[in-house]
Amino acid sequence: MMNPLPFSLKGKRAVVTGGLGLLGSAISKALAQSGASVTALDYTDKNWEKYKKQASDNNWAMTFECFDITDTDNLDSRLEDLEETGGNIDIWVNAAYPRTTDWAKYSQALNTASWQQNVDMHLSSYCLWSEFIAARMATHGGGAIVNVASIYGIVAPDPELYANLDMSTPSAYSAIKGGIIAHTKHLAARYGRQGVRVNAVSPGGITNQQPAIFADRYNAKTMLGRMANAEEISWPIVFLCSEGANYITGANLVIDGGLTAL
What letter would DSSP give residue 246? Predict the structure, then answer.
């Protein structure tokens, strides 16, 4: 029988990787606002005091743990540690954005070592953590996993957006995000009968102090005429984690202001 408040996450324990980042912090807060007990994982405690105060002021159940998802040694024991300190994990959101220092600085001149490092840091970490958390969720009745992918996992970026700008979307990014979407479907197929739902979201551009010329070009390509703010990505993720999405798995929810529908 469905919860009479199917979008409430009260009584659920949620973990968000990259939980203090631009998007991750919005997801952490939205999950907490919806009633979940949230653990934000991030490689640094920068910004935690600010979010800790917000959580306290709003009576949100939020904690923080310093955690590097690119370290994929001893995954099972590290998940055990997380569950020992906070209880079984019902919701896992992969929102971290690990990348090398040269990220987005190369496009035509491909740096193969950087490509391999970024694929390992980002794609491999998402997939491996998802594999292990899905297996653990299956042992205690199920759960929900959401992976943050991108529209550039399903369509190519328009090179004209970046013309004469010192920025780009590396080809590795498309490979990573496309791989995340494919692995999401694969994992969903394997664990659906055990009550574990696995979905992805593919955001379009998110406002983050981009150069005005880039923002103008990008905004002109969307149906809504603008980029998203981080909160507009977080609430669809809350939905996918809730009982209101109980019959949704293996899906990739595109959140792009209509850009890829044109």
Answer: T
